[in-house]
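Lab meeting notes turned into a lecture example. A postdoc, R.K., suggested we walk through two folding results consecutively so the class can see how the record format repeats. The first protein's sequence and structure tokens come next.
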Amino acid sequence: MNRFFQTPPVVKNLIIINLLIFMATALLPVGERIMGWGALSLGTPLFHTYQFITYMFLHANFEHIFFNMFALWMFGRTLEYELGSKRFLIYYMICGVGAALIQYLTALAFGELPLFLVGASGAVMGLLLAFGVMHPNAVIMLLIPPIPMKAKWFVIIYAVIELFLGWRGVGNVAHFAHIGGMLWGFLLLHWWKRRGIIRF
């Protein structure tokens, strides 16, 4: 069967876990407690170090999880086949944790604590960066507006927009977490390249 119609194991299981946890927080009576336990609650008495991992599996609403999981499925499949399942999972988790660290440092610098953070966006932005680095001339069809664009330009434009929005403090979105996921992904990819683990 063509790989386009297949979903490798790590991507598939990440999507399943995220969906199950989202349904639990949305439908179960203990949903708010799960959210409070797992969200990254920096600068509050609720903070625990494990939240740097658990926050990635929580989402605020359907739109939030839909776009994150769609991007994970869209870009993650190719990357998992190329990196291998173990290395792909390592990359995904490092980008997610690194995204939260960058968001925390910027919030600390700008006096924006306490900070509550949920979502896989930082890790997913790391996947987008990896796809752009490893397949710079692949064409991505944007949704809004519906125009084709090479992956390398999409990544650069997206990063610049996120940096601008983060600097201006626009919206209730962790823009620096998105930048952080891309930054850690870039560093990790080039470290692997220098060690001869991957080529691009």
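The second example is placed directly after the first for contrast:
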Amino acid sequence: MARLRGGAAAAAVVLMVIGAGVTGCKKDSIGSSEPAETVAGGGGAALAAVDSLAVKGRAPKTGYSRERFGTAWADTDSNHCDTRDDILKRDLKEVKFSDGDCRVSSGVLQPDPYGGKDVTFTRGRSLVDIDHLVALSDAWQKGAKYWDASKRIALANDPLNLRAVGASANRSKGDGDTATWLPPDKGYRCTYVAAQVAVKKKYELWVTDAEKAAMKKVLSGCPGQKLPSGGNPTAAPERFHAN
């Protein structure tokens, strides 16, 4: 993608593109603190990126299990904290720890991005989940069943694909894609769908016809929505294994 250059005229274009996506969409920092990409002179990168995704039918779920994506919350970034605690630290406010600065004991989602209300997290209670934005079962049926274990483990632990959310709304999602489930909080839908597009693009997962149409419908309502970037590499370290 070409970078904009050339003083005030280019700056004006950038401001117009970014401004187009502000109305009706909440800001978010899924996956990375790096700046997201924008496309000059057209829609935001998230809408444009939908057309880069391969379209195929959903493959059978045969052979799927959570274990095919490795042990839950593996420390693939080698920071000595498991992935679940990494995401809790990133997404919660008023965080408290039970040991140093790793094991999160409590905090608050302000607000839950899916339901739009504040949710208090206390370890051992099930009010906050860590959601795979692209569900692992959905990924399995759209390409991941053909990957090696290293790539599946990477997807399951990639911050780009993970978000702390209220358990109540999340458990209505199941393994739904954009065509079958969207967050109840309509103000978060642009951010949510853009993140799914980013994950599917990064990992070369395909979408169904219905899923692509649903993605474009949501993102057409916020044409300046940015495409998230960053996260972890698409291959986990060799010490990790999956069944």
